[in-house]
Write a structure and sequence with these properties.
This protein is of the alpha/beta class and 331 residues long. The protein has two domains: 5-125 and 317-329, 2-Layer Sandwich (Nucleotidyltransferase, domain 5), CATH 3.30.420.40; 136-312, Nucleotidyltransferase, domain 5 (2-Layer Sandwich). 39% of the residues lie in helices and 20% in strands. The protein is built from eleven helices and 13 strands. A hairpin with an 8-residue loop joins strand 6 (87-90) and strand 7 (99-101). Helix 1 crosses helix 2 (103-111). It is globular and about 55 Å long. The two termini are 18 Å apart.
C-alpha cells in the first residue's frame, strides 16, 4: 500500500545562477540524496527547466525511489515570485526569459508531480527554522550573504512574505550616511554594496587599482574563475592579506549594524547567517557581526539571549527549506 503524501519524502530544489541542487528530503529533514548540476542560464529558460527535471529525477533515483514515491517538489528561486500561481516574476541572474515564467506548471508537466515555489532566501530561512538552528523558536530572521544580501522572516513560527510578497529585502536597508555607496535601489548607504560578496569584490578591486598591494586580484583569477568567491576570501585571509581583512571588516561591521537594527525592530530570538561566506568562515565571520550588533542594541537586558549564529544546515538550507515548503503546502 502506498504511503500517504504526508509521510513521503519531498524534493527540494535550490536554483542558483551558477548551479542548481535537487535533494530528496525525509520528514526529519535528513537529505537522502543530492544531485548538483550547472545551471547554464545562457542556454535559456527551457534548457534550465530540463536540467532541473534531470536533477530531480537523478536525486530520486539515487535515493532508491521512483517519482511516484515522493510527495511533491518545492523550489527556491532567486527573485520575486507569484507563489499562488507558481510563476517566477523576474530572475535577473537567470536572464530575460525568466520573466513571468510559469515554472511550477512547466515542471509539473515534465514530472507529473505537484510543484510549489518561493524566493530562495525565504525557503532557506524555512529550512533553518524547521530543521536547523531555529528549531523550536517562534521568531527568527535569516540573513544570507552571497552575490547580494537577502533575508527571511519567521514570526510566530510562520514564514512571512508580506502583503506584496517582498518582505525580507533587508539588503536594501540603509545603514550608512548620504555619502555612502549607491545600491540597486538608487539609495546611498545600503547594506548590499558594502557587505555582499559582489560588493566586497568591487571594494577590493578599487583598492588594488589605487596601488595597494594585495594577493586578492591574483586569487580571483587563479582560484575564483574571475570572481571573488568564498574560497578566494578564505585563502586571502590565510595569507593575511591586509586589503581583504579591511574589506571583510567593513562587511562585518555593516552586517552587525543590520543585525542590531533587526533586533531593535523585531526582537527575534535568533538571527542566523547563511550563504557561502558564512559556510566557509563560520564563527570567524559571525563573531565580529555579533559584537557590533550587541553594541547597538537599545535594550541591553539579556542581550546575549538574542542569538546570532551561523546556519546549521550550511549549503543544504535551501534544499531542505524548499522540501519543507512542499511538505507544508502540498498536503
Amino acid at each position: 500500500m502506498a504511503k500517504s503524501r504526508k509521510h513521503r519524502p519531498y524534493v527540494g530544489v535550490d536554483l542558483g545562477g551558477t548551479s542548481l541542487r535537487a535533494g530528496v528530503v525525509a520528514r526529519d529533514g535528513g537529505v537522502l540524496m543530492m544531485e548538483k548540476l550547472k545551471t547554464k542560464p545562457e542556454q535559456g529558460a527551457a534548457a534550465v527547466v530540463e536540467r532541473m527535471a534531470e536533477a530531480i529525477t537523478g536525486a530520486v533515483k539515487g535515493a532508491g525511489l521512483r517519482l511516484r514515491d515522493v510527495g511533491g517538489v518545492g523550489i527556491g528561486v532567486p527573485g520575486p515570485i507569484d507563489a499562488e500561481r507558481g510563476v517566477v516574476r523576474l530572475a535577473v541572474n537567470l536572464g530575460p526569459d525568466w520573466t513571468n515564467l510559469p515554472l511550477a506548471a512547466e515542471l509539473r508537466g515534465r514530472l507529473g508531480l505537484p510543484v510549489c515555489l518561493d524566493n530562495d532566501v525565504r525557503v532557506g530561512a524555512l529550512g533553518e527554522h524547521r530543521h536547523g538552528a531555529g528549531q523550536g523558536l517562534d521568531d527568527m530572521v535569516a540573513i544570507f550573504v552571497g552575490t547580494g544580501v537577502g533575508g527571511g522572516l519567521i514570526l510566530g513560527g510562520e514564514l512571512r512574505a508580506g502583503w506584496r510578497g517582498s518582505a525580507g529585502e533587508i539588503g536594501h536597508t540603509v545603514v550608512a550616511g548620504a555619502n555612502g555607496i549607491v545600491g540597486k535601489t538608487g539609495q546611498p548607504g545600503t547594506v548590499e554594496p558594502l557587505a555582499s560578496r559582489s560588493g566586497m569584490e568591487r571594494q577590493v578591486r578599487e583598492v588594488a587599482a589605487a596601488g595597494r598591494e594585495s594577493v586578492v586580484p591574483e586569487l580571483i583569477e587563479s582560484v575564483g574563475g574571475g570572481r571573488l568567491t568564498s574560497s578566494v576570501i578564505q585563502q586571502a585571509l590565510r595569507r593575511k592579506d591586509a586589503v581583504m581583512q579591511e574589506v571583510l571588516a567593513v562587511a562585518q561591521h555593516t552586517l552587525g549594524l543590520l543585525a542590531g537594527n533587526l533586533i531593535n525592530t523585531l526582537d527575534p530570538q535568533l538571527i542566523v547567517f547563511g550563504g557561502g561566506v558564512t559556510e566557509r568562515l563560520g564563527e570567524r565571520f559571525v563573531a565580529p557581526i555579533r559584537r557590533v550588533a550587541y553594541a547597538n542594541l537599545i535594550n541591553k537586558r539579556s542581550a546575549g539571549r538574542a542569538m546570532i549564529v551561523p546556519a546549521a544546515l550550511k549549503d543544504a538550507s535551501g534544499v531542505v527549506g524548499a522540501a519543507v515548503l512542499a511538505r507544508e503546502l502540498l498536503k
